[in-house]
Amino acid sequence: MIRLDAVGKTFRGRDGVPVEALRDVSLDVAAGEFVAIVGASGCGKSTLLRMVAGLVAASTGTVALDGEAVAGPRAETAMVFQAPTLLPWADVLRNVTFPLRLMRRAGAGTEEKARALLDVAGLAGFESKLPRELSGGMQQRVAICRALVQEPRVLLADEPFGALDALTREEMSLELLRLWAARRMAVLFVTHSIPEAVLLADRVVVMSPRPGRVADVVEVGLPRPRSFDQEASDEFHRCARRIRDRIFGERAARAA
Amino acid sequence: MVALFAVWEGAVRFFGIREFLLPAPSAIWAATASVWPTVLQHTLATLGTVLGGFAASVLVSLPLAMLIASSPAVSAALYPLLVVTQSIPKVALAPILIIALGANEAPRIIVTFLVAFFPLVVGTVAGLLATPPELIELGRACRAGRVQELLRIRLPFAVPFVFSGLKVAAALSVVGAVVAEFVGADAGLGYLIQTSMAFFRTPLAYGAVVILALLGILLFQAVALAERVFFPWSSGAAQAPPAA
Ligand SMILES: Nc1ncnc2c1ncn2[C@@H]1O[C@H](COP(=O)(O)OP(=O)(O)O)[C@@H](O)[C@H]1O
Ligand SMILES: [Mg+2]
């Protein structure tokens, strides 16, 4: 359903020097598929996501959703940012419903749906709290609920757990998998953590740095539902090692 | 505060300072209380000018700030003009306005406005532009247009900044009203101070100054109270904006 065809992006920097962030990226993501993207900082992962979200235009190539070129933000995509980016003036419930209200898609059932999601995310009872009264992990859960309440067919997550501690992070990745299993949208999930990518995804896209290109695509053969027990399996190690070799192999080659 | 007044009272009595130079607090109180209906009248006149000027500041500053924040071009065109209004001494401007507009309330409110509005504009613009880029991007991802972005994201984010500006504007409104009354008025605490001093009734002039200070404090507190009641999330947020 998402199709990137020979996509490139060159930014014009402040000083006028062009920065080539992405080059010749081609990728197909099927409806309901969970794809993780890993790669060094600055290799254009965020840019890739923002192009699929319709927030930045590709310089070359095409980005299409259901065969239709993405020209701007669309109702069927929702994004989770690295920081929770909650509205400091709105309580949890109003933060979750904010996108729907902004897009005038809020209806009679919206609040109900938001409450149900918050409940699943372990935030029942926090509906009328302000963001600053919540921990970082809880805030990020609110941000995930805010994306899911839009019932997106494409979920774009840009290092959503990047700012969380390791324990919260593991707990939240399983939670995200449960929510995804119930809804089955296509997910593009950027992460710095190789184990997290393997544990969550059907496929892991490994990107090479500057300009960002697809270095490898690793199919993860682990059965679902996933659990942390699978981290001990051979398949997990095979995938993790291959990704690691791709990332650090290139770095080692550069250093030599 | 109490100690200060006590020392003041003691010093005046001990050194025998003459009343038209520095009156003792007790003398100020006596002089003011003895003519309290007149003082009240002047206080209400000043309060009217203060509130009028403050209201004008709010009504002009908020739309003006939104206009300035909307584009660098508008900002480049308008800011120099605003700075000009701030570099002209209002005391010099007041008589000119009175000749142009007549000796009524209008020039006084305009002078008050000119003294008070600038920090409110600057504060509001700062708030509108300080909105984190992530929030702006969230708005764009939700297909918000420029007007929606301004009203639903930037403006609420700027509320703590607006209130910082409002507090300064409240205090400056009192200053502005007195400046206006010094130059052209037949009522008000500024007028009372001038006439009292002309007749060496120094204690009454001091009384008027104290009332002015109280007015300033009262107005400032009223703004702070409005912030706490209507925007409870805002109090203290301008100093420490929430992390992203
Ligand atoms: N708006 C922009 N203007 C100029 N350069 C940008 C912009 N956004 C990203 N870049 C550049 O593009 C490259 C990729 O950035 P990004 O997509 O954020 O990488 P990642 O998310 O993988 O860390 C970086 O070199 C960055 O400096
Ligand atoms: Mg990034």
UniProtKB/TrEMBL annotation, chain A:
Domain ABC transporter intervals: 2-234
PROSITE patterns registered for this protein in UniProt: ABC_TRANSPORTER_1, ABC_TRANSPORTER_2
One term of GO molecular function: ATP hydrolysis activity
Species per Swiss-Prot/TrEMBL record: uncultured Acetobacteraceae bacterium
Name used for this protein in its record: Nitrate ABC transporter, ATP-binding protein
SUPFAM superfamilies given in the database record: P-loop containing nucleoside triphosphate hydrolases
InterPro entries: AAA+_ATPase, ABC_transporter-like_ATP-bd, ABC_transporter-like_CS, ABC_transporter_ATP-bind, P-loop_NTPase
Transmembrane helix listed as a keyword: no
Keywords: ATP-binding, Nucleotide-binding, Transport
Claim: Transport is one of the keywords in the record: yes
Pfam families: ABC_tran
Family in the record: Belongs to the ABC transporter superfamily.
